[in-house]
């Protein structure tokens, strides 16, 4: 359904370091910058990017917005979370762990990136 997701970043160098670290925990290589200061991480299933806002105003996060990343297991989610905290992210929501809900058991880990965007690592637990 999605081709790409792009979020604003006030300090692209700090945000790039954060995403390089969290994506490395998922087996994704470093992002590549273009001549406009945007940084792109390209995978076979989609593209994630950060950008300084085109209108020149500060980047801000969307209240109620969350970007979820699929994980191969709880260990990957934990490594992603730890890499994020170690690289300028802040933990939010409950600590990483299993949550029960209408979609079954999910292993979730939440972070805010350096610009305040809310992110989630998600692994669907086996039934």
Please give the oligomerization state of what you see. single chain
Structure classification: alpha+beta
Average of the residue pLDDT scores: 95
Share of residues in helices: 10-25%
Q: Please, what is the CATH homologous superfamily?
A: 2,3-Dihydroxybiphenyl 1,2-Dioxygenase, domain 1
Helix and strand run: EHEEEEHEEEE
Question: Which overall shape is indicated by the principal axes computed on the Cα atoms?
Answer: globular
Distance between the termini: 25 Å
Tell me the β content: 35-45%
Count of domains: 1
Radius of gyration: 14 Å
Q: pLDDT under 50 segments (min length 5)? A: none
Tally the helices: 2
Based on the structure given, which CATH architecture is correct?
Roll
Please describe the biggest sheet, giving its number of strands, its sense, and whether it closes into a barrel: 5 strands, mixed
CATH top level assignment: Alpha Beta
CATH topological fold name: 2,3-Dihydroxybiphenyl 1,2-Dioxygenase, domain 1
Number of DSSP-assigned strands: 9
Task: Summarize it.
By secondary structure, the chain is an alpha+beta fold. The chain is built from 2 helices and 9 strands, in the order βαββββαββββ.
Reconstruct the topology from this structure.
Blueprint lengths: L3 E5 L3 H13 L7 E2 L5 E5 L2 E6 L15 E4 L3 H13 L3 E2 L5 E5 L2 E9 L5 E7 L3
Parallel strand pairs: 1-4, 5-9
Antiparallel strand pairs: 2-3, 3-4, 6-8, 7-8, 8-9
Helix pairs in contact: 1-2
């Amino acid at each position: 359904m999605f081709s790409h997701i792009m979020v604003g970043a006030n300090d692209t160098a700090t945000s790039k370091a954060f995403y390089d670290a969290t994506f490395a925990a998922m087996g994704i290589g470093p992002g590549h910058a273009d001549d406009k200061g945007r940084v792109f991480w390209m995978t076979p299933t989609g593209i994630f990017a950060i950008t300084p806002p085109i209108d020149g105003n500060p980047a801000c996060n969307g209240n109620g917005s969350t970007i979820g990343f699929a994980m191969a297991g709880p260990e990957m989610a934990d490594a992603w979370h730890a890499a994020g905290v170690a690289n300028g992210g802040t933990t939010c929501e409950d600590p990483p762990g299993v949550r029960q809900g209408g979609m079954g058991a999910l292993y979730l880990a939440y972070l805010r990136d350096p610009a305040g965007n809310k992110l989630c690592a998600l692994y669907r637990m086996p039934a």
